[in-house]
Amino acid sequence: MILVRNHRNKRIFYSGLLGRTICLILVLLLSSCLKNSDNDDLVVFTGATMGTTYSIKVSGLSDALSIKPIQLEIESLLEGINHSMSTYRTDSEISRFNRFKEVSAYSVSLPMLQVVKESLRVSTVTEGALDITIAPLVNLWGFGADKQTETIVDEKKIKALKRRIGYKKINIETDPPQISKQHPDLTIDLSAVAKGFAVDQVGVLLENKGFKNYLVEIGGEIRTKGFKQQQTSWVVAIERPMSGERVIQQVLSMGNNSMATSGDYRNYFEKNGKRFSHLIDPNTGRPIDHRLASVSVVHRSCMTADAFATAFMITGFEKGYQLALQENLAVYFLVRTKSGFDVKITPAFESFIIGN
Questions:
Q1: Quick check: helix, strand or coil at residue 125?
Q2: At 294, is the secondary structure helix, strand, or coil?
Q3: Which pTM was predicted?
Q4: Which of 146, 158, 276, 315 could form a disulfide with 287 if both were Cys (CB 3.0 to 4.6 A apart)?
Q5: Using the 8-state DSSP alphabet, how is residue 353 labeled?
Q6: CA 35 to CA 45: how far, in whole Å?
Q7: 245: helix, coil or strand?
Q8: Which domains does the chain have, with CATH numbers?
């Protein structure tokens, strides 16, 4: 869960985590595209995409006539990604692949291949903690597109589904870009990575147009570059994972980097005194059962940060921390205790904390 703060006039907007769908509450922004009244060259674009919202701030855009065309290009880019990777669209590229009942190679776009390839790499590094084929299990537990059932699932149903899922059952080819599945009923879901990928692509678009100072946020995933205004760094914050409260946990200055956060405290159900998270461990087929409350990952690539944040929420702190050290990743772990939360960070994360 991330919030972004504008220190100049103390106005704040928040983004709250609902599973991996993060709803942005806009207090600072009053329209879909506006200029900051305190600084004429800080422009803000906002809108809806990928089942959530986006907010993009660009510093140095002084020509008012160029604002709308740039936003239209951004929205066209996001629409293209959504049309490729949204499982909620029956005509999307990913939906067509999921309906493909053959094990032969299926031609895909380069962006989709790129996202699948990075997802499989993180799956390998984390020993299957991230698994883009796990949607059938998520649906079985009532956390998918269907209404929450709040039902404890029978082990036989889990075993039956596990026979046709698994990241190792996906093969990719780069020239030409193709994906194949080893089981005809295997499907993929890129929701754990697609928003991060979209953040990266918007950043690339802005940089290709010569903008060196921006903040891009989609559904809580963030990428910053350069400065906000007058050589002032972009400042973001990790929010404490508490239901019903909005409290800053840690303030950061990320530099030219991205951050993604994952948590388990918004989307769950309770049955017979036990808490069942929306995060399903692909190895067990069951909701995670550990004390890790949230994970924030800072990385050059928001797509990669997005993937690892999800994976570490599955592994839990102990294994996640060791994997983060192994990969030299900047990671901030919040672990539940009886009295609150313990903060655990990797050495690579220390430089982003303001005051260190």
A1: helix
A2: strand
A3: 0.85
A4: 276
A5: B
A6: 9
A7: coil
A8: 93-181 (1.10.3980.10)
Full pLDDT tens readout for the chain, 356 residues: 333 333 333 222 223 333 333 333 222 222 234 444 444 578 898 999 998 999 999 987 766 557 889 999 999 999 999 999 999 999 999 999 999 999 999 999 999 999 999 999 999 999 999 999 998 888 887 776 655 555 667 788 888 888 889 999 999 999 999 999 999 999 999 999 999 999 999 999 999 999 999 999 999 999 999 998 777 899 999 987 766 666 788 999 999 999 999 986 555 444 545 555 568 889 888 888 888 999 999 999 999 999 999 999 999 999 999 999 999 999 999 998 988 889 999 999 999 998 76
Among candidates 87, 25, 18, 16, which has minimal Cα distance to 50? 87
Quote the CA–CA distance of 118 and 254 in Å, as a whole number: 22
Angle between the 317-326 and 302-315 helix axes, to the nearest 10 degrees?
140
Cβ contacts of 274 within 8 Å, gap of 6 or more:
none
Residues 6+ apart with CB under 8 A from 257: 223, 224, 298, 299, 300, 352
Tokens at residue 98, please?
Answer: 């999921």
Q: Can you tell me which residue has the tokens 């996202």?
A: 115
**How many alpha carbons fall within 13 Å on the CB side of residue 277?**
22
User: Side chain identity at 108, as an amino acid letter?
Assistant: V
Question: DSSP labels for 151-213?
Answer: -PPPHHHHHHHHTT--GGGEEEEETTEEEEESSTT-----TTTHHHHHHHHHHHHHHHTT---
Residue at token pair 């060791």: 322
Report helix, strand or coil for 225: strand
Q: How far apart, in whole angstroms, are the C-alpha atoms of residue 165 and residue 37?
A: 52
CA distances, 323 to each of 127, 191, 311, 312 (Å): 10, 22, 10, 9
Contact predicate 303/285, CB 8 Å: no
